[in-house]
Design brief:
about 300 residues, single chain, mainly alpha, about 0% strand
Length: about 300
């Protein structure tokens, strides 16, 4: 029990929180045909992180998150600018801006003096989920009710918990506007629901969620969780509220099964080493989507309805 609390509890909770946050927002990205926004935002955080390090000389969490958030939000604005000025479809605009900004981040990373710190593309992709050790958990179950021990929890857990509360509050407060704006933007504008403003707020929250999860789980989980649970849930029901519930269930299952399979699966099969938890969680989410594509009751697209 003590070993589980110290080594596995926090990484598993962080994986669950990151997966649920991304899944909740991912439902609206999928329904709005903006799935690539999550991919782009999670990648273009890289130049912001590098810029924050070059400006501050530290890899502390706050400067890194601020830099990544600024980069993500600027990228979203650039995508909208290219789409409107160039009058091209959103997918093409995202492809142009995403490629350019990510390439800029890699170029700056390779040319800057970051050799003395743990700041590289591999860390950006895979995160550091396995390193989130709660040393106070070694004392056993009593640590769960000990305020001093709880104060030693890795900060990534608290940040993701706060973001989840913010995302849930936004969805509850803007539910009607999100629903109408997703399925009928023209009608939403006609009744004064301001779908453009709500849509921009949604994308900003996507950026915040990606940045909050970036340090702990890397971009692999972020990309997978924005798309796979929501797409699988879309095949399970034609009602929006149950779709969100399905996506949360798939996200939690992916995080738990993926983490356990990464840590113990290779050992059960006779291999000496475990594999990346982030990669395995993303793989499990993809498998869930594949099963849903083959066996879900609603494999043909009917528009979801209100609960």
């Amino acid at each position: 029990m003590s070993e589980f609390l110290m080594l596995s509890l926090v990484p598993m909770l962080v994986g669950i929180l990151a997966a649920v946050i991304c899944a909740l927002l991912g439902n609206f990205l999928v329904l709005r045909r903006q799935s690539l926004v999550g991919d782009a935002v999670s990648h273009v955080a890289l130049p912001g992180i590098v810029a924050a390090f070059l400006l501050t000389g530290t890899i502390a969490a706050v400067p890194m998150m601020l830099g990544a958030a600024a980069s993500a939000i600027v990228t979203v604005a650039l995508i909208e600018l290219v789409r409107r000025v160039g009058r091209i479809e959103p997918g093409a605009a995202m492809g142009v801006v995403f490629t350019a900004v990510f390439a800029l981040g890699v170029l700056v990373l390779e040319q800057s003096d970051t050799s003395t710190v743990h700041l590289d593309v591999e860390h950006a992709l895979y995160g550091n989920l396995e390193s989130l050790i709660w040393f106070a958990g070694a004392t056993g179950p009593s640590a769960l009710v000990d305020p001093a021990a709880l104060g030693e929890l890795p900060p990534q857990l608290g940040r993701l918990a706060v973001v989840l509360v913010v995302v849930a509050a936004f969805l509850a407060a803007a539910w009607k506007e999100l629903f109408i704006g997703t399925f009928d933007p023209g009608f939403a504008r006609a009744i004064g629901a301001r779908p453009g403003l709500v849509g921009m707020a949604l994308v900003v929250l996507v950026a915040v969620a990606a940045v909050a999860a970036f340090d702990a789980v890397g971009s692999i989980i972020v990309i997978a969780m924005f798309i796979c649970p929501a797409a699988a849930a879309r095949l399970m029901t034609d009602r929006l509220a149950p779709q969100l519930a399905w996506s949360v269930g798939f996200a939690v299952a992916s995080a738990i099964v993926g983490y356990v399979a990464a840590g113990y699966g290779p050992l059960w099969l006779g291999f000496a080493d475990s594999v990346s938890a982030a990669g395995m969680i993303a793989t499990v989410s993809g498998l869930i989507l594949a099963v849903a594509c083959l066996a879900a009751p609603r494999r043909h697209g009917n528009k979801p309805q209100a609960a």
